[in-house]
Design brief:
The complex is a heterodimer of chains A (294) and B (343).
Chain A: H1 2-9, H2 14-18, H3 25-51, H4 83-89, H5 92-119, H6 121-136, H7 139-150, H8 154-180, H9 184-191, H10 196-235, H11 244-254, H12 260-288
Helix pairs in contact in A: 3-12, 4-12, 5-6, 5-8, 5-10, 6-8, 7-8, 7-10, 8-10, 9-10, 10-11, 10-12, 11-12
Chain B: H1 3-31, H2 36-41, H3 47-57, H4 63-75, H5 89-124, H6 129-143, H7 146-160, E1 179-181, E2 184-186, H8 191-198, H9 201-222, H10 224-237, H11 241-248, H12 253-261, H13 266-290, H14 296-305, H15 309-337
Antiparallel strand pairs in B: 1-2
Helix pairs in contact in B: 1-4, 1-15, 5-6, 5-9, 5-10, 5-13, 6-10, 7-9, 7-13, 8-9, 9-13, 13-14, 13-15, 14-15
Classes of the chains: A mainly alpha (294), B mainly alpha (343).
Chain lengths: 294, 343
């Protein structure tokens, strides 16, 4: 009985906030457009085996470094591979790395943030110090160090990116929990004898979820860019996988030949994907934290 | 809290942060699956050679001994030995660092000035088409991989129009000598400064031309946060009474905006510069690789392709210490300028 009453007072902001996005001004539109971009690119990547005209890793399907033409709308690269097919299929790695790294961040970062800030005291101090040290570090450089030691692979890339972003989750969650745990309804729950576990997961967590969603979306954008960066410094996957990051990396050596199409299209794809996630993330944080609006 | 005790407290807080970071990097290199020496050879080495190799690098000792040698070495400015030729990594770091520093300085100038000017423009035309397009540019700048922008910039300015050079810092053999008094030479490694000290306008011009594209690339990618910060700050400040009063006195609008209102945004911008320093270094790694800029970032990427894990560790540790020092300095400057934050 008691619990039911209390639950009625929990303000789960997530779903109501996401209704009527089109009436919510710029932030709503940013979320919608961003989500549309991301969805379109996800569909393109998933359906690429059926829509691509050539196999993206078969070489010499056309002449070498042919500019965009009717037969090869986005041209060919130095191996005579069709760029259109490579653009269709090249997002798979980035999606996998990004999704996996966000999952790792959620699984590791959220519980640490919740427990440390709820318990307070030394646990909180030590966790904050560790997280702040990692947070202050240039993210890409740390990811490079970890990825260099782990070796190439989707899981390894995702892990090295996740290590860098866990502190962002920790910080956001911590700042929210510190405020929420002082609110009267949490105090009421404690007075009525709710266990710590119940208070933390049933009364506090639901109110932190909107912030987690916002930071996770921004994390997606960062993970896309960082995975492209790791590939660029030579820590990506073997050549046999079509990957926008790899095309951009190798395309640098082709610049003097004037072959702009080899970098332009994969590059635009990375920008679009990161932009889609960024717009969603920006929109969500504006919606959930009206204080930051303006 | 007085300024002095704030500074002391802040320094004391930096020490455990650096220690944690050093330990973390040490563990990443030593404890993650596969030991660095065998990884270096990709397992194609006889056990005797591997043991000899480890002995020369000190990697054969117990972990705890290695850890203390590593810490003591760092105190003496020793960043370990390269797996490639056993030469001290610190030598390479100190010779490559000025290039990175110069790139970082010029990129920050572009980053802050573009960000501030666009932010001010956006706030002056609040909610207009210009405001929206500047905001969209700001968000888009987050989403551009710095090396992609670099490639586009090279393609347009260096290859298509031949306006600016790309690749390296200056023509081969043209490096400025710096200050010469009698038989004494001193050079900072910053080519712009060295050219001025040498009194050679040609070299100054060439160094600036070489600096332009990489700094433009890195500065543009990082300016978004300054657009947002300046815009938000100016939107609030332009509503304040002292701005209205200045306008009422008939002072020119440009003076009101840049001379009066913008001053209020100075402290947040300074703080943000400190916070962005880590992003600047991370961006420099990619920018240097794109433009073949011979700095620390390119050294790091070079070492990755040689599987030179001890050198990678050295560079990463150097970056970490540098960032900690800069954020310490920014906090102290901030506390000096704004006494409120000491409490």
């Amino acid at each position: 009985m008691k619990n039911e009453k209390l639950q009625g007072r929990i303000v789960v902001q997530l779903l109501p906030q996401l209704r009527n996005l089109r009436q919510r001004g710029l932030a709503g539109w940013a979320i919608l457009i961003g989500a549309a971009i991301v969805a379109a690119m996800a569909i393109m990547t998933v359906t690429s085996p059926w829509i691509r005209p050539y196999d993206p890793i078969v070489i010499n399907v056309g002449p070498i470094l042919s500019p965009p033409s009717a037969q090869f709308p986005l041209g060919t690269n130095h191996l005579g591979q069709d760029m259109l097919s490579r653009v269709y299929s090249g997002g798979a790695i980035m999606f996998q790395v990004a999704v996996l790294s966000v999952i790792v961040c959620l699984v590791v970062g959220v519980p640490i943030g919740l427990f440390a800030s709820y318990l307070g005291g030394y646990t909180d101090k030590v966790a904050s110090l560790v997280m702040d040290s990692i947070y202050a570090f240039p993210g890409l450089v740390l990811a490079i160090a970890i990825a260099a030691m782990l070796g190439p692979g989707v899981v390894n890339m995702a892990l090295s990116i996740a290590v860098v972003y866990v502190p962002s989750y920790f910080r956001i969650i911590r700042s929210q929990v510190l405020t929420i745990k002082e609110l009267p309804y949490v105090e009421a729950a404690t007075i009525m004898g709710a266990k710590s576990r119940t208070t933390l997961f049933r009364y506090i967590l639901p109110n932190v979820i909107p912030s987690i969603v916002a930071i996770a979306t921004i994390n997606f954008a960062d993970a896309v860019l960082t995975s492209a960066g790791l590939t660029f410094v030579g820590l990506g996957l073997p050549v046999s996988t079509p990957d926008w990051g790899w095309d951009l990396t190798y395309g640098r050596r082709l610049l003097p030949s004037g072959a702009w199409w080899v970098i332009a299209f994969p590059g635009l794809m990375v920008v679009l994907l990161a932009l889609g996630f960024t717009m969603m993330g920006e929109g969500l944080s504006e919606l959930f934290n009206p204080r930051l609006q303006k | 809290m007085s300024l002095r005790s704030y500074v002391i407290a802040r320094i004391l807080l930096t020490i455990p942060m650096i220690m944690l970071l050093l330990t973390f990097v040490f563990l990443v290199v030593r404890v993650l699956p596969g030991d660095p020496a065998s990884l270096h050879f990709e397992k194609q080495v006889s056990p005797e050679m591997l043991l000899d190799f480890k002995r020369r690098l000190g990697l054969d000792k117990p972990l705890i001994v290695q850890y203390f040698e590593y810490l003591v070495g760092l105190l003496r400015g020793d960043f370990g030995k390269s797996m490639q030729d056993f030469s001290p990594v610190s030598q390479q770091i100190f010779s490559a660092f000025p290039a990175t520093l110069e790139l970082a300085i010029f990129s920050s100038i572009i980053m802050v000035s573009v960000g501030v000017v666009l932010g001010v423009q956006a706030s002056r035309s609040y909610n207009s088409a210009r405001d929206h397009s500047i905001r969209v540019f700001g968000i888009a700048s987050y989403a551009i991989p710095v090396f992609f922008l670099g490639e586009v910039v090279i393609m347009i300015f260096a290859i298509y129009f031949h306006l600016f050079p790309a690749g390296d810092r200056i023509y081969p053999g043209m490096a400025p000598t710096g200050l010469t008094i009698g038989g004494l030479h001193w050079s900072s490694g910053l080519f712009v400064l060295d050219s001025i000290l040498e009194g050679n306008p040609t070299k100054l011009g060439v160094s600036l031309r070489y600096l332009f594209l990489p700094s433009l690339t890195l500065g543009t990618v990082l300016c978004g946060i300054f657009i947002r910060l300046t815009r938000g700050n100016m939107l609030e400040t332009l509503q304040l009474d002292f701005v209205t009063a200045a306008r009422a006195r008939g002072i020119k609008e440009t003076t009101v905006v840049y001379g009066y209102a913008l001053r209020n945004a100075f402290l947040p911008i300074l703080t943000m510069m400190g916070l962005q320093f880590a992003a600047l270094l991370a961006g420099a790694v990619l920018t240097e690789t794109t433009f073949s800029w011979p700095g620390l970032g390119r050294y790091l990427v070079d070492r990755i392709s040689f599987r030179d894990y001890t050198a990678i560790q050295g560079v990463v540790v150097f970056f970490g210490i540098l960032v900690a020092m800069v954020s310490l300095a920014v906090d102290i400057i901030y506390a000096y300028l704004d006494p409120r934050i000491r409490f």
